[in-house]
């Protein structure tokens, strides 16, 4: 984006991993990402759109109750992280940006001749951590355990699958990201995780347990993991990160290095790209770098606040699943759709549902408008 705005910029991207490697599987995004990106760089938007897969229905499957509900809505998209990064690296190279793979940057002094150093080095950002006393990062660790897996099962719709075990509920968010693969993010409460023995199982054994639990949605397809060198599975607890400030002299944070949002709202990638667009805009509009960085921090922080709130409440909804899971299926599914609401956590779920229904009925009457 910076190179498009002014081709005379001399830009290098340093990526510590080899070309074509990444973590995770596929990510979801909405039309909004494509239209925002289209305004910033139509070529990237077109390529991402062409290489994405899409769906417009959501299936909630509560196995023990033999309940499957289908909800139709606007199109959503999935793309493999590898494909997405490949497109962005290629586009950057085509525009004349140098891309150096397998080159880790541990401190900004390594690039001291740069006018501006942009740290897009993820949640564990080394550049940020060196100046933790300045950026003042705060991390809150989610209660639930999750694992990010792939599968060869290609889901037609976005699938929420809830399975009851003797140790509590475990659930999976499944969505396709290519013509032959889908992502499965599997999550459960800590007592379910240990009760099922997932805390001590190696990856192969753990996947066998999960394949059995989610056999109905997987249709015989395997789950695919990324074992660590010692064969252990990559179970994690989601970390929500915020920083008091986003820049220090000529060093500025973007994406997960600056902030993370729980995966259950599927927004982190769009927010990271949005940060980049805001930063480019601020630098382009104001030639004084410090005031441009201050503007980026101020305006972008405010722009992402509602997504951060939605992510916070969504993560809490899943951590409080027992509050909702025993409701009649129709209510449980409706409240799953309302999980971003700040009010829901404070109102008895049945009452929240009934008031919501009453309001819906009211708006369906002639003369009432939302
Ligand atoms: C389970 C799960 C599911 C998710 N699903 C979605 C989803 O559906 N949709 C969505 O939009 N978001 C999703 N996200 C969030 C999304 O993955 C992140 O928000 C996004 O990847 C942030 O992009 P980033 O470029 O800031 O950081 P990253 O993607 O983490 O990239 C950082 C890069 O910096 C490199 N790097 C790190 N340190 C150095 C260094 N010192 N020197 C050189 N290179 C370095 C890394 O190798 C990496 O390539 C999900 C996250 C999780 C955990």
Describe this entry's structure for a reader.
α2 (31-40) runs antiparallel to α3 (42-51), α2 (31-40) packs parallel to α10 (268-285) and α3 packs antiparallel against α4 (81-94). The protein has 370 residues and is an alpha+beta fold. It is 39% helix and 24% strand. It has a domain at 2-54 and 74-138 and 240-317: 3-Layer(bba) Sandwich (FAD/NAD(P)-binding domain). The protein has 14 helices and 15 strands. The two termini are 38 Å apart. The longest helix has 31 residues, at 289-319. The strands form 4 sheets. Strands 2-4-3-9-10-11-8-12 form an 8-stranded mixed beta sheet. The site of flavin-adenine dinucleotide has 27 residues, from β1, β2 and α10.
Summarize the model shown.
The chain is built from 14 helices and 15 strands.
Q: How is this fold's topology laid out?
A:
Layout: H1 2-5, E1 12-15, E2 26-30, H2 31-40, H3 42-51, E3 53-62, E4 67-80, H4 81-94, E5 98-101, E6 117-119, H5 126-129, H6 132-135, E7 137-141, E8 145-151, E9 158-165, E10 168-176, E11 182-188, H7 190-195, H8 203-213, H9 215-218, E12 223-224, E13 239-243, E14 247-248, E15 251-253, H10 268-285, H11 289-319, H12 322-325, H13 329-337, H14 349-364
Parallel strand pairs: 1-5, 3-9, 6-15
Antiparallel strand pairs: 2-4, 3-4, 7-13, 8-11, 8-12, 9-10, 10-11, 14-15
Helix pairs in contact: 2-3, 2-10, 3-4, 10-11
Mean pLDDT: 94
Calculate Rg over CA atoms: 22 Å
Number of strands: 15
Q: Please identify which CATH superfamily of the domain at 2-54 and 74-138 and 240-317 we are dealing with.
A: FAD/NAD(P)-binding domain
């Amino acid at each position: 984006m910076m190179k498009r705005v002014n081709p005379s910029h001399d830009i290098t991207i340093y990526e510590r991993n080899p070309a074509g490697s990444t973590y995770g599987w596929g990510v979801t995004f909405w039309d909004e990402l494509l239209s925002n990106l289209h305004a910033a760089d139509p070529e990237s938007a077109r390529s991402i759109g062409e290489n994405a897969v899409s769906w417009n229905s959501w299936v909630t499957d509560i196995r023990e109750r033999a309940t499957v509900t289908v909800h139709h809505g606007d199109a959503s998209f999935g793309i493999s992280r590898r494909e997405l990064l490949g497109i962005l690296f290629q586009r950057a190279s085509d525009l004349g940006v140098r891309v150096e793979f397998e080159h880790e940057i541990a401190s900004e002094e390594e690039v001291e001749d740069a006018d501006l150093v942009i740290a897009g080095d993820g949640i564990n950002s080394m550049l940020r951590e060196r100046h933790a006393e300045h950026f003042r990062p705060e991390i809150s660790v989610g209660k639930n355990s999750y694992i990010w897996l792939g599968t060869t099962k290609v889901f037609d719709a976005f699938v929420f699958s809830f399975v009851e075990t003797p140790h509590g509920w475990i659930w999976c968010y499944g969505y396709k990201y290519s013509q032959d693969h889908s992502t499965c993010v599997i999550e459960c409460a800590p007592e379910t995780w240990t009760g099922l023995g997932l805390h001590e199982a190696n990856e192969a054994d753990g996947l066998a347990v999960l394949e059995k639990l989610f056999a109905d949605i997987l249709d015989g397809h395997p789950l695919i993991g990324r074992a660590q060198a010692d064969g252990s599975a990559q179970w994690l607890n989601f970390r929500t990160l915020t920083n008091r400030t986003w820049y220090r002299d000529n060093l500025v944070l973007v994406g997960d290095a600056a902030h993370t949002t729980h995966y259950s709202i599927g927004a982190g990638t769009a927010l990271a790209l949005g940060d980049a667009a805001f930063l480019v805009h601020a630098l382009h509009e104001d030639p004084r770098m410090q005031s441009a960085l201050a503007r980026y921090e101020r305006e972008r922080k405010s722009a992402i606040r509602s997504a951060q709130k939605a992510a916070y409440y969504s993560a809490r909804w899943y951590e409080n699943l027992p509050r909702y899971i025993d409701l009649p299926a129709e209510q449980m599914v409706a409240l799953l759709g309302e999980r971003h609401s700040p009010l829901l956590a404070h109102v008895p779920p049945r009452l929240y549902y009934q008031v919501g229904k009453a309001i819906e009925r009211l708006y369906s009457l002639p003369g009432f408008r939302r």
